[in-house]
Design a protein that fits this description.
By secondary structure, this protein is mainly α. The protein has a domain of 142 residues: Tetratricopeptide repeat domain (Serine Threonine Protein Phosphatase 5, Tetratricopeptide repeat). It contains 26 helices and no strands. The chain is globular, with a radius of gyration of 23 Å.
């Protein structure tokens, strides 16, 4: 089927929905632009609320966007894309799954292009990147002149594939189609940062700021670049510009707090995170405050206070019986216990995670992914106990299960686990080979690589890997577990 054929089908689907979903004719002042992904609703009020919400969401005003997506749903309960918007801006896991199910249920009212968008999210939840990519490619074929389709493709390549060069091409295509569209400038900056083009990233963020100078996120994004470069005071100043525009812009508080952590000002960081708690508009924002409080303690190696902070985190989820979030909190507890050398306690929490998830409202595919990753967690517990044979058996099971999905993140995890096993067995060349194939955005991968090089007597490569961890300077929770360890290892080289 050609792109033109698909586009005509999409247009006909849109017209059918407008004429039949609500039982009235579409407004006469609305024209169908077949070059763009349709917005399928017969309610003017719903459409206007959706457009406002989409713009807010694209510029990271998530809580504000959520309110408008809800208004769109209220105006048109059969508006599939509004339900998807509610899901993607939800403050709790529970609300996400409820809203996403409604998006799927109402997708029969949606156009072909909108169903592709829902299918992308569905495939992401199922851990099916190939299906995600196929749907996005179909969407770009269907709407080659839609800047959002190319931006979404760029996001997939950036986050799911870590293919930054192709992501850059997608973002540039979106900008070429619509130079006034702000969102791709933002992600272009992040992609250029990932390939080491800091000057190009700075230019992209400058263009982003020019497009929407009255919004907080351009200053927030630029602040992240400055933080990455180790320019902490300048970064904080840029975050403060964002907060001067919107005092409730949570990402900027998180950014300031992380700068303070990297500067060794842990008490100040926790005071910054308390501001998020004080100004929180929903449980999602409250949880963010405590997640990063946990990270601040982990950076100090203070496991007890970190566990206390996770208990608070768990309590917030328990208030609304958000069991999938509570399941994730059990996993975090297990992770902390594991790093503290309390392997049996870690295994107990990892098991509790599974039981809690089974009683949650998560989709079947999310449940299956949790069960797969349970083998990964238990294999690491076995390694901490020096039970390499059990670790190898669990790793084999995990590898076989991951092979059925071929999700990049999980495949990378198999290599990380196989590398850890090789490290435990003294096979350093094999360990390094696996770590090279693991997630290169995970600072722990570099620390493990440093240990392997150090064991081989290659102090230079070990130092380089340790320095990569120490200079990581990104909003990455895993960094909290490994940065100080990297410093300790570096001191011995």
């Amino acid at each position: 089927m050609t792109g033109g054929d698909l586009r005509r089908i999409a247009a006909s689907s849109l017209v059918f929905c407008l004429l039949n979903a609500c039982g009235v004719a579409p407004p006469v002042d609305r024209t169908v632009d077949t070059t763009k992904i349709p917005i399928t609703t017969c309610s003017e009020k719903a459409r206007d609320a959706f457009l406002k919400a989409r713009w807010l969401s694209e510029n990271l005003r998530i809580t504000d966007a959520h309110e408008y997506f809800l208004k769109a749903v209220e105006a048109d309960p059969e508006f599939a894309m509004a339900h998807l918007g509610v899901a993607n801006t939800a403050s709790t896991n529970q609300e996400f799954f409820e809203a996403f199910r409604r998006a799927v249920e109402t997708s029969t009212n949606a156009s072909e292009g909108e169903r592709f968008l829902i299918a992308v999210t569905e495939a992401n939840l199922a851990g099916q990147p190939e299906v995600q990519q196929a749907n996005l490619e179909a969407l770009v074929t269907l709407f080659p002149e839609d800047e959002r389709a190319h931006n979404l493709m760029g996001n997939f390549l950036f986050f799911n594939q870590q293919d930054y060069e192709r992501a850059i091409s997608s973002y540039r295509k979106a900008i070429e189609i619509n130079p006034k569209y702000a969102s791709p400038y933002n992600m272009l900056g992040y992609a250029l940062r990932q390939v080491g083009d800091f000057a190009g990233a700075e230019k992209a963020f400058h263009h982003y700021t020019e497009r929407i100078p009255d919004q907080p996120n351009p200053y927030d994004s630029y602040a992240e670049l400055l933080m990455k470069m180790g320019r902490y005071e300048e970064s904080i100043a840029s975050y403060e510009k964002a907060l001067a525009i919107d005092a409730n812009f949570v990402p900027s508080y998180i950014g300031i707090g992380n700068n303070q952590i990297f500067m060794g000002k842990f008490d100040e960081a926790r005071l910054t995170f308390e501001k998020v708690e004080e100004n929180a508009r929903n449980n999602g924002e409250r949880r963010q405050a405590h997640v990063w409080t946990v990270a601040s303690y982990l950076h100090q190696g203070d496991f007890e206070n970190a566990l206390d902070a996770v208990q608070t985190l768990y309590g917030i989820a328990a208030e609304t019986d958000d069991r999938s979030a509570m399941s994730g909190d059990f996993n975090l507890m297990g992770e902390i216990f594991l790093r503290a050398g309390r392997a049996d306690d870690a295994a107990e929490k990892f098991d509790a995670q599974i039981e809690m998830m089974r009683s949650s409202d998560a989709t079947e595919e999310v449940m299956k992914a949790t069960e797969r990753n349970h083998n990964y967690d238990l294999a690491r517990v076995a390694l901490w106990k020096a039970d390499v044979d059990t670790a190898k058996k669990l790793a084999t099971t995990y590898r076989d299960e991951v092979a059925t999905h071929n999700a990049r993140f999980e495949v990378q995890r198999t290599h990380k686990l196989d590398g850890m096993i090789a490290l435990a067995e003294g096979h350093m060349d094999e360990a390094i080979m696996h770590f090279e194939r693991a997630n290169q955005r995970d600072p722990e991968t570099w620390l493990l690589k440093a240990r392997a090089h150090a064991a081989m007597g290659d102090a230079e490569e070990a130092r380089r890997a340790c320095e990569q961890v120490i200079d990581f300077n990104e909003l990455n929770f895993n960094l909290a577990f490994v940065r100080e360890t990297a410093r300790e290892l570096l001191a011995t080289l």
